[in-house]
Amino acid sequence: MSDTPDIDALLQSTPSNAVAGQLVAWADLTRNQIARGDMMLGILTFDEVAKIPVAYQTAAQHGEPSAWVTLAWWHAYPDFGEPDLKSAEYAIAAAIDANVENAKLELAKIRWFFKRDSATESETQQAYQFVSEVVASDPDDADAIYILALLTTHGFGVAASPESGFELQERSADLGNADAMFEIYAHHANGLGVPVDEELAFNACQRAANAGHSRAMYNLGAFNATGRGTPKNMPEAVKWYERAADAGNPSAMAGLAVIYATGDGVEMDHEYAQEMFDQADYCGLDVSHLREQVGL
């Protein structure tokens, strides 16, 4: 699919919207190769991967300004290599200057998720201001409300108010945001702005899982596997672990591996268990202690 001479030719082409679109398409397809493990197989080279951010930046400069946002996220959370938050900030600032839709919201996300402990006071205040502006302009933007709720709950750029944050998460969840549904679980489970209530927490987690939230699906698998908040039910645990694993959750992959390695409520299948361990390991989860525990 990706071929170094082709990308080199694109990068050296006369700037145009068509070339910009081709650069984005090449970068996106190359990232798909990373996801399916082509680097491990030697099909995809490091030199090609190194050109992904170059392709996005060149595309942004050639007439695809939305590529600035994609580039910012690549730097903040790359598919391969180390994060570069300075470059992420540069790219998202360029997106804001180019008036890319929701660029201000993406800046707030990057600062919250990746610079929570290092952002300056002015950076946190700017992030909160930007998200507030987005919500004010579109009161039904569930994603923006969810981020505003996180900042409000934990005091990022504003005085902390878990109570107000919880209300905002309820508003976002009612608009269909699965992340907000999961945060409602966290509020009830940890007593953030509301009393601790395990039943309400379980119900909120189930709501988020039914909406496709991978961490919530993993939690439901764990709850059913251990009998926490619900009677132990291994078939139900396997169902939720499988759904979470399909959504890319490595902890769920490891959970399935342990279940099938030990035959806990299922027919023992060491080959499948090994496959799940390998997938979890490829996703970056250290499963060495679990492999040792079950003899794989």
TrEMBL record:
InterPro entries: Sel1-like (IPR006597), Sel1_AlgK (IPR050767), TPR-like_helical_dom_sf (IPR011990)
Organism domain of life: Bacteria
Record SUPFAM superfamilies: HCP-like
Listed name of the protein: Localization factor PodJL
Gene name, Swiss-Prot/TrEMBL: podJ
